[in-house]
Amino acid sequence: MQFSLDLAWLEAVMLAGVRMVAFLVIAPPFSYNAIPVRVKAMLGIGLALAVSPQVTAGYQSLGTVEFFGALVLEVVVGAALGFLVMLVFSAVQGAGHLIDMFGGFQMAQGFDPQSMVNGAQFTRLFHMTALVLLFASDGYQLIIAGLTRTFTALPLGGGMDLSAPVEAMTGGVTQMFLAAVQIAGPLLVVLFLADVGLGLLTRVAPALNAFALGFPLKILVTLIFAVVVYVALPGIVASLTDDATSLLVGVR
Fold first, then answer.
1. Which of 75, 81, 85, 76 lies closest to 29, judged by CA?
2. Contact between 113 and 33 (Cβ < 8 Å)
3. pTM
4. Over its length of 252 residues, how does the chain's per-residue pLDDT go in tens digits?
5. Angle, helices 233-250/64-103, rounded to nearest 10 degrees
């Protein structure tokens, strides 16, 4: 009995799997360290097999040197695409960081080795909530669908125009800060007005030592108004998922 092995098909699937795995290691929600690396690798290979009819059509077998060069190129492409998705969802984490900083929680920050996030309570809470919402709302499926469509925009071994991802990253950083301020903006305004009120009260009656009440008052205000921001997170994560999918499809 003889078996024939299609080397071109095998090479195409391997290259697609490398791009998939590099993306899953960096992009949320798959980048969470509680997901074992072997699971990410198996998922990447499974997705590569799923898109094999698309990536193997018209693929020509490469030489040894060219194949290893294509492997490195696919790692770079997958990592760049994953970084773009991570950049989009960093807006939620950035909003939590702003709330921690202005609300007085920054002094209780810690490092979470699972999510690789260094921040206080709201930073980690918002980050974890975004991950849970991505899985609960099937938003991760939209991200995977956007990743599979990148094989049409960026064929295997074809490389990518570096100006496109660099421009997308530059715009993404700007949009990340803007989105973080928009998410936490109402609460930041309330905390700023509370500081202004305490300052005026201190000027009017210095003996009251109003700033001694500042920390517990700001913590109370933060806990009350943070509920409003937290309730709005599902809609925010849905919008960010659409933005991430658009970025994946739009990179050329």
1. 85
2. yes
3. 0.77
4. 555 666 777 888 888 888 889 888 888 888 877 788 888 888 888 888 888 888 777 777 777 787 788 888 888 888 888 888 888 888 888 888 888 877 777 776 666 666 666 666 788 888 888 888 888 887 888 888 888 888 877 777 665 666 666 666 677 677 777 777 777 777 788 777 877 777 777 777 776 666 677 777 777 888 887 788 888 888 888 888 887 777 776 655
5. 150
Q: Report the DSSP beta bridge partners of residue 97.
A: none
User: How, if at all, do strands 117-119 and 110-112 pair?
Assistant: antiparallel
17 by Cβ neighbours in 10 Å (0-12 / 13-18 / 19+) ranks as buried
The domain limits of the chain are 7-250
Sign of CA dihedral 141, 230, 179, 86: negative
Spatial separation of the C-alpha atoms in residues 215 and 65, rounded to whole Å: 63
